[in-house]
Amino acid sequence: MNATIDVAKIVLASSGRPVPRTYFEAVAALALISGFDRELVEQLSSHIRLRNFLAHEYLDIRYSKIRALLDDEPELHRRFIEIVRGWTNETSA
To answer: Mapping DSSP to helix (H, G, I), strand (E, B) and coil, where does residue 75 land?
Structure first.
């Protein structure tokens, strides 16, 4: 998720858009960039919230949320990488 946040900030800055203050907002703002799938961005953003909880060691997280993250994450990031590659090719053309 940290890599996703970093990529989101780079894409936003490279697109001339302001980089939001929070990680969640940075990833959510990708929905404003042409070529980024809104549903994918919303799913990634929801996982950012879980990342924030884990990073701050909130131990009351329910297993079902962690399991959903583990189940969804590989496919979400595969799709995210495809979109970033397309965006990179489009902006460098």
So the answer is: helix
Helices (DSSP H) in the chain: which residue ranges? 2-14, 23-28, 38-55, 63-92
Helix (H, G, I), strand (E, B) or coil at 23: helix
**Does residue 59 register a pLDDT over 60?**
no
d(CA 93, CA 6): 23
In this prediction the pTM is 0.64
Residue 32: Cβ within 10 Å count? 12
From the number of C-beta atoms within 10 Å of its C-beta (0-12, 13-18, 19+), residue 54 rates as: middle
Closest CA to 8 of 71, 55, 18: 18
Q: Tell me the pLDDT band of 71, cut-offs 50, 70 and 90.
A: confident
The residue to which tokens 């980024």 are assigned: 36
